[in-house]
Amino acid sequence: GGGVIGRYCDHPERFPGVEHFHTMRVAQPNGKFYSTDFLRQLCDLWDFRGSGLTNMHGSTGDIVLLGTTTPQLEEIFFELTHKLDVDLGGSGSNLRTPAACLGESRCEYACYNTQEACYNLTMEYQDELHRPAFPYKFKFKFDACPNGCVASIARSDMSFIGTWKDDIKIDQEAVKAYVGGEIAPNAGAHSGRDWGAFDIQKEVVGLCPSK
Ligand code: SF4
């Protein structure tokens, strides 16, 4: 199945300490929200059954655990799935670990719920991860807006990018209030310095990429 990338040394008799040094991929939580309790358990497990070296996160999106031996693989898989409530990530010709930006959970730009989409597709296709059935790898990634924080276009075969439906809604009263100086630009973040009056031509119209 997926999730384990076998690494073997060509000269085990010369380097017995790294006879095997397998990588394990573990599915990252949606939006990469962790509790310290989970991270402690993961590190304890990897210190005990692996090298202790981690990569948070690989360019696949996974939690990457670097370096363990063949007899430890099933033990680690059991601990991950039964105690930490997390599954292996993808590798090889199968579904790769889906990844989502944190979207609606924190970001004001989100146009759809990336975490829900990512969760549902992960649950639907997780079997394809454990029993590779595809002729080649396949990746879904989810960006909730065109800023593309998970770089879904570059990193996946099928990218889901949130955009607007219908006309963009503009609160003309608020725009007037910005222009008139009643609302502080950028929520007051620049208030420590004098940036001059708000200039809609320079700061909005002149920066429009469609110009
Ligand atoms: S892709 Fe868009 S919605 Fe998602 S975190 Fe980035 S800016 Fe926010």
Automatic annotation (TrEMBL):
Coiled coil: none annotated. GO terms for molecular function: heme binding; iron-sulfur cluster binding; metal ion binding; oxidoreductase activity. Signal peptide: none annotated. Residues 91-186 form the Nitrite/sulphite reductase 4Fe-4S domain. Keywords: Iron, Iron-sulfur, Metal-binding. The keyword Iron applies. This is Dissimilatory sulfite reductase alpha subunit. It comes from uncultured sulfate-reducing bacterium. The lineage of its organism: Bacteria, environmental samples.
